[in-house]
């Protein structure tokens, strides 16, 4: 009986230790963390997604938004609330700059649904400097909107959908990253490598 209790304890302890271990075999180690440039050149020709043809002007606008989002994400990974607020404010403005006149009716409806919520989340992050937990709550919802945005229009760059299993009382949360290397914006410096790559977007 004593041996059974010891074995059970060791099993529980082992499971706890690996709960947030980055076990994704596809994640490259030693990848340099870079902040995405918001000055990337726009696509020269229209691209096509599941939602139809995407105008080059739309692609350029989406690239700007993704760049600001990645700046925000990188600030949160470093527990830098001030930089996260700055990026949040810039991102909220970018949502109003996209020229909807070049969108199809289906794209316009989908974009409006995404942008209304995403702009609000970005604004909250921008107004919450010094309040990392609050910024991360809104980042969780913003990340879902950004995922939908990239699925709608494409990102013109490889992006990775990462998942943290521990955030929000172990309900989990996703984020988008420009690198395979896990740097967790929800846990920051405390548990920076917590998470796995779930999907690659192109």
UniProtKB/TrEMBL annotation:
Residues 27-55 are annotated as: Disordered. The keyword Signal applies. Keywords: Signal. Pfam families: DUF3347 (PF11827). It comes from the Bacteria. Residues 1-19 form the signal peptide. Residues 67-156 form the DUF3347 domain. Coiled coil: none annotated. The keyword Signal applies. Residues 34-50 have a biased composition (Low complexity). This is DUF3347 domain-containing protein. It comes from Mucilaginibacter antarcticus.
